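Before drawing any conclusions, I looked closely at one protein, both as residues and as discrete backbone shape codes, quoted below without any editing:
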Amino acid sequence: MARAIASRYDRLMSALPKSPMSAEDYLAWVAERPGRYELVDGVVVAHAAERAAHAAMKGEIYVAFRDAIAKRGAPCHALPDGMAVRIGKTTIYEPDALVYCGPKIPPDALFLETPTIVVEVLSPSTGRNDHARKLLGYFSVPSVMHYLVVDPDEPIVVHYRRQADGALRTTILNEGVVTLDPPGLAVDIGALYPARA
């Protein structure tokens, strides 16, 4: 079985474009492809397979955001993974969850221009990237006010928040409530880890 998975991965990697792409070219290319990808400095990168804990955490985050939006009555919308965020002319990331505010985007949209909150769930291969390259990338988008990096294995949430002066503030939480203002949402850390409650 491991050999079959490795063979499938090799075929997938050989099918990725070899030439650098613009964000527009990437969006046209990815619209016709199954799977999850990102565009990093013009290079298409395939997402690795996910552990069950990673997938479950993405679901918990989406539900927590959806419930927080409903409780607050905020004019915002939560989306699970699959919605791309344009970072620049040659970079597009696909966070594990996000929140945007204002009118609903069209149902056929492939990317979001104005996320307010973006979330990445840690995996063994992405930790350094989530706290470095993606941190800088997400906060290069003017609408992003909060970036959460969530550990799927133990209750640790790193909350990066844009301050009024543009500086970033970092808070590490393992219990209590993470306050996301704007748009005025509150998420209980315990709700993200229901098996531990």
Residues 52-196 form a domain with the tt1808, chain A fold (CATH 3.90.1570.10).
